[in-house]
Specification:
Strand order of the largest sheet: 1-3-4-2
Order of helices and strands: EEHHEE
Number of helices: 2
Distance between the termini: 33 Å
Protein name: UPF0145 protein ACFP3U_03920
Largest sheet: 4 strands, mixed
CATH topology: Translation Initiation Factor IF3
Pfam families: YbjQ_1
Number of strands: 4
CATH architecture: 2-Layer Sandwich
Shape: elongated
Organism: Kitasatospora misakiensis
Family: Belongs to the UPF0145 family.
Length: about 120
């Protein structure tokens, strides 16, 4: 399970896989590049929440049901990315990104991707 907070805002300190959006990690060296890893999920919303979102969009404001679904999707995609990284022997992901698209008008596809690597502390 990925060690990310409730809102998908970042890793908890007990994480076993470090996930960053940068090309490198200060204080660490890349010992081995494993390659691309990804986590993918496709979610649909039930008809009640879709109707509620449609009505809410008429008056404006946050679509909380949709926000909750997207946060859950993002967290699930990131968990799968971390699982794949661990399974391939990595302990970090560099150049982490999300991609969100509509999936055949029935749901939302969330893909978390990056480059799995093995890192170790840099020596001075």
């Amino acid at each position: 399970m990925a060690n990310i907070d409730e809102y998908g805002g970042g890793q908890r300190p007990d994480a076993q896989v470090l996930v960053v959006t940068t090309n490198d990690i200060p204080g660490y060296r890349v010992d081995h590049v494993i390659g691309e890893v990804f986590g993918l999920t496709v979610r649909s919303r039930h008809i009640g929440s879709q109707i509620g979102a449609s009505l809410k969009s008429l008056v404006g404001g946050e679509l909380r049901g949709l926000t909750k679904t997207l946060v859950e999707s993002r967290n699930e995609a990131m968990e799968r990315l971390v699982e794949q990284t661990k399974a391939r022997g990595g302990n970090a992901v560099l150049m982490f990104r999300f991609d969100v698209t509509e999936a055949a008008d029935v749901g939302t596809e969330v893909c978390a991707y990056g480059t799995a690597v093995v890192i170790s502390p840099a020596t001075a």
